[in-house]
Amino acid sequence: MESLGMLAEGFQGALTPMNLLWVLVGCLLGTAVGVLPGLGSSMAVALLLPMTFALDPTAAFIMFAGVYFGGLFGDSTMGILMNTPGQGSAIASTFEGHKMALNGRAPQALATAAIGAFIGGMTASIVVVFLAPKLAELSALFGPQEFFALALFAFVATSSVVSDSAIKGLASLVIGLAIATIGIDAMSGVERFTLGAPQIFDGISLVTVTVAILALGEVLQVASRIKRDRDGKQVDASGRPFLKAHELKEAAPAWARGTAIGLPFGVIPVGGSEVPTFMAYDVERRLDRRRHDPQFGKGAIRGLAAPEAAGNATTGTAMGALLALGLPVSSTAAIMLAAFQQYGLQPGPLLFERAPDLVWALLASFFVAMVVLLILNLPFAPLWSKLLLIPKPYLYAGITVFCGLGVYATSGRIFDLLLLLGLSLLGFLMRRYDVPLAPLMIGMVLGPLAESSLRDALLSSGGDWSVLVTGPIPLVLYGVLLIIIALTVRSKVVNRTARDV
């Protein structure tokens, strides 16, 4: 009850005319920046950081919250419409969301994303308000062996399912892991796969890989087919910006499952919402394979609903972890931690005692931002989908320019633009030979986590490999993984036997 009273006081602060204006401005700016490939909510917060010195702390952080959540929707918007996600959290949404757009269901796809973001974000905000003191206990359950088991689970499960060919899936995973290992090893100081180029001593940025593989690779694929498709059917970008009853019934379980998957990852430092969004996508894909008429690969609404809910649920609890624990579990949260320190504030348990007005107004602004984004984005879904009506040569030329600007803005180096071009050719070849992209992104995102967790576990145990199967969480994950592999092998054998007959 004490939390409800403090939240009510927070709403009094958040619902003042000026603070409402800052929420609206943050949501609009976050969405606008999020639609640019290579940028996103973290870039928007970083760019706005120097501009908020004239604001009082409450107004500044309320605007940051709007930018944070708005950026996530903007990331997904371009991922759905153009297959060019703003940043890693929207990668999983592109797989089925973009197919929905190509099938003439772009407004419904954007509505699915908006509602999923609302459900995930609102649920996470409620959890943060009532369970913030308990967040530390959940985070403490995960040690190096648990993180390694989680990463291995994601590696094998994803690469074995996303493609009809397990070899292609594993090849894509190996490429992602190879890219993730480029650079100077943090523990030994040894150069790995740098070919002596100092520009990649710090590794290859996830932003560069994401934009190259998913955005420019798609541009090259479309460019190679423009002449063939010039007389083809025009994509239908019109339609209703809402979901019918049967679509809501189809998406509702996925929203619920995605939210449940995303909530714990806000306090588990795995680098952001990429992991839970991929996990939510993978769960829905496995469930879809049991249906009489599988929809994945054709624009399955569940394949979009679950990652969107998971990503925003993770974002909400990540903000709770930042406020309650001082633990930044994503790049955007790390930037906001720096913003708190600029104002002389240190997130953590004492923040609730030293600046309760700011904390509870910020928590209340989460609820307000979710409502504002839903009101803004549902009516604007048909407008965003009009991007599909722009002639392909102009549209994809513009995307190419923004891809280059986005990557250059993050590093300021010409070398990264050359790297962007080289990796985009890799993305094009993978599409041409039907090699799945998801395992590559999973390897890139989780590769560093798996490596550091394996090393930490072995160092803490004196080189005893049995530590990797010590504890209930790793054993459960490995057990589930074995069951999944067995079911996948059985399914492939049955399908091949049916084809031969």
Automatic annotation (TrEMBL):
TM stretches of this protein: 20-39, 45-73, 109-132, 138-157, 169-188, 200-220, 321-340, 360-381, 393-408, 466-489
Protein's recorded name: Tripartite tricarboxylate transporter permease
Domain DUF112 intervals: 20-442
Keyword Membrane assigned: yes
Record carries keyword Transmembrane helix: yes
Keywords: Membrane, Transmembrane, Transmembrane helix
Protein source organism: Kocuria soli
Superkingdom of this protein's organism: Bacteria
Entry-linked InterPro entries: DUF112_TM (IPR002823)
Pfam families recorded: TctA (PF01970)
